[in-house]
């Protein structure tokens, strides 16, 4: 009896190495500007070429400015290193003939957004990218994982990856969520329960009645943040929801698609398969979640007291004291005591059309609070931006005082102009809240698009009404 992960592993296993590691075949390789320049340089020095050209898809996302306009050019990238990386991706893709959705393409965007929506991510694939949040693609029933720069070169050259097999973990989300509770809240709750090391060494399969009921986009949010729970892989077995999503986005011919569906329908964990670790979570008991500290595991209900050192074990006390000091919340008791400076709705976690719809519904007809210095919405791709504008969501946000941007990773990380200034407090829909993640001494609180929108309107955390 095998799990979904076992099946995907076995079908892509090439050989066992003397080290105990294995070579597995990689079906799809996504590339962006940050982790690819050194990999391409390695190929050139060794006089190598990509082994399977059409397996590679590239787009710039991490460093790109999100205010571009129609006449944008490389020279408008202010940071020299960022400019070099974007230019080098363009040059390398042209040199080797790799398909790229470049900075001027209407389909450019965050790699983990464009891959599924353009039909390059398909159930049953092995997928890698030089980015830890590649686990996102597991929502479509893929074995997807992030890799390092040296591994990017290896995959380009051989179409294989040297890796050790993971253990199996199952997380079942059962029940119906309360109003205003989204997939972002549910995965943050999980991380709060098991910690950022709870999934270390595991591939986590998400299942249960809640998973069955949600969209592929919501599943992507959960798989995206599996990495924040310590796992390398997060995945959901393909079902009718998956197949309908692929039908809508796939480039396969009707005949090929129908043949593929016969295979995808077999990608299920066997009934009697044994997991190394299992847990069940009742989502009906979960409230909207917001992080208070400097790790995704430092998360509480939006209306719960912020933990104090005196309430914690001796092992936790030092971390809590340091996190409270960094976040500037030494004396505050609740998140609602905090006044925010900025709001960011975007990232590979929450920048898809349904995320923007949820946030727009909250801000419609309202205006951002006076204390909010800047609120930005960054669609995850050119196609998401186009769809949102067709629906008038851009106007809803702009009328409320938000700034509407072009696609990119944006304020998720401090590698482009969208950054926090020291001590600014940000309501963010991204996936990480480490010290300095969004800018030097910036203070990041992770939450859902719905909660971020509410925070923008009210200037502080509370429950949407």
Structure description:
- This protein has 465 residues and is an alpha/beta fold.
- The chain folds into three domains: 4-163, Aconitase, domain 3; 167-285, Aconitase, Domain 2; 292-458, Aconitase, domain 3 (2-Layer Sandwich), CATH 3.30.499.
- The chain has helices spanning 4-12, 37-45, 80-96, 111-117, 149-158, 183-194, 209-213, 216-224, 240-249, 254-264, 314-327, 353-363, 382-390, 393-400, 449-458; strands spanning 13-16, 22-25, 28-31, 56-58, 99-100, 126-129, 143-146, 160-163, 167-174, 202-207, 233-235, 277-282, 289-291, 299-301, 342-345, 374-377, 403-404, 425-428, 443-446.
- It has a five-stranded parallel sheet with strand order 5-4-3-6-7, with helices on one face.
- Helix 2 crosses helix 5 and helix 12 (353-363) packs across helix 14.
- The longest helix is centred in the N-terminal third of the chain and has 17 residues, at 80-96.
Brief characterization of the structure:
The protein is 32% helix and 16% strand. The mean pLDDT is 96.
Content of β-strand:
15-25%
List the domain count as a whole number.
3
- What's the β-strand tally? 19
Largest sheet: 5 strands, parallel
What would the principal axes of the Cα set say about the shape?
A: globular
Radius of gyration: 21 Å
